[in-house]
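On clarity, I found the account of how folds are encoded harder to follow than it need be. Since the whole study asks how a given chain folds, the encoding of that fold should be made plain. For the editor and my fellow referees, an illustration may be useful. An entry of this sort, consisting of the sequence and the corresponding backbone structure tokens, reads as follows:

:::
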Amino acid sequence: MLKGFVLSESGPNPKHRLTHLLESFVAAYPSETELITLFQKYLIQSAMPEILIDFLKKNESSVDHFFESLRYPFNLNLSRNYKHTMLKYKGGEGLPFYEELVADIGTMDKCTVALGRKLERR
């Protein structure tokens, strides 16, 4: 979503790192505060849920590597094994995080559709 909205404002070749895309989105759409807050919640470590902070620390990773660390068991050159157990086996302890994540995704969907419609009307 970030990349698509940044592309629509700045043209081709936005930086691919999530933190840079977030900065570009904030600069291009400063009035989209609800979306910005949600994106920051999952991309800015100081705002992140503890379960994601722990995942990044344990895997010595960053949000800019979420595309790899959340998707694959190993990094691209197979030198690092990502540990997903802290995300998978939380039981009742992890349930509030996942319920909140699902709610946030629903809100993001509504906000991005509204923003997309605004852009179409320009």
Q: What stands out?
A: The radius of gyration is 16 Å. The chain has a mean pLDDT of 90.
